[in-house]
Write a structure and sequence with these properties.
The chain is an alpha/beta fold. About 40% of the residues lie in helices and about 15% in strands. Bound molecules: 3-methylbut-3-enyl trihydrogen diphosphate (2 copies) and magnesium ion (MG).
């Protein structure tokens, strides 16, 4: 089982358009899937789930869609509050939340603080997140802390990321048919196994997620090494 699964939840807009609905309807339906996938993670012992909810590039969408997406996160967190507390889900936000409207910012900060001791699943919400922006932020923080160049290590940079203390994603799923990273977890995904699904995110059920987990379990990860040879058959010489 992967310890950390990351998901690029793509295809909401097309899901809605196929039904003759506004794109927003796809975002609303897509946001509901997170609950099922988080529950599956808990059942399978996945410790960290990172979901890509809004990228630094998504600001370039129409203003009404952006403001809808801004409201969606605090709204879903509120709607799933009892699940989050009963299932002991720890919420973390990856991304710049200072730009959220004050009331939402406070609501998000509250739930992060109130769930900090939960231990069943870390749910990382990548919101106003960009992988390159995250690296720039980390470097700025290291420089601000007066770290000397010779003391900069990969481990230190990892600890300056939003995901500090968490394992890198083992499995990175993108739904919606496209096969690109779109600036997601640039630093952390170097050895992630990619799983691309044609399914549009609002249709991505627990079954589809289980298929991705099964596919992951059939892969051989080498991390640059030579594959481990099967034990040699006992020779009769
Ligand atoms: C992903 O769905 C959700 C966000 C980017 C917020 P899209 O809105 O990108 O859906 P498509 O790709 O247009 O279908
Ligand atoms: C990636 O999807 C971002 C999120 C899922 C939040 P996009 O739909 O924004 O990605 P591109 O534009 O197709 O690369
Ligand atoms: Mg998209």
């Amino acid at each position: 089982m992967p310890a950390h699964v990351a998901i690029i939840m793509d295809g909401n807009g097309r899901w809605a358009q196929h039904r003759g609905l506004e794109r927003q309807a796809g975002h609303r339906e897509g946001a509901r899937r997170v609950r099922d996938i988080a529950a599956a993670c808990i059942d399978y012992g996945v410790r960290v789930l990172t979901i890509y909810a809004f990228s630094t590039e998504n600001w370039d969408r129409p203003a009404d869609e952006v403001s809808f997406l801004m409201d969606l996160i605090p709204e879903r967190l509120e709607a799933e509050r009892s699940m989050i507390f009963e299932q002991r889900v720890r919420i973390r936000v990856l991304g710049e939340i200072e730009t959220l409207p004050l009331i939402d910012r406070v609501a998000v900060r509250d739930i992060v603080r109130q769930t900090a001791h939960h231990d069943a699943l870390d749910l990382n919400i990548a919101f106003n997140y960009g992988g390159r922006a995250e690296i720039v932020r980390a470097l700025r923080n290291l420089i601000r802390d007066g770290i000397r160049p010779e003391d900069v290590t990969e481990d230190l940079v990892s600890r300056a990321m939003y995901t500090a203390g968490q394992p890198d994603p083992d499995l990175l799923i993108r739904t919606g048919g496209d096969q690109r990273s779109s600036n997601f977890l640039v630093w952390q995904s170097t050895y992630s196994e990619y799983f691309f699904s044609p399914i549009l995110w609002p249709d991505f059920t627990r079954d589809a997620f289980e298929d991705a987990l099964a596919d992951f379990s059939s892969r051989t990860r080498r991390f640059g090494r030579v594959p481990v040879a099967a034990p040699a058959a006992a020779s009769d010489a």
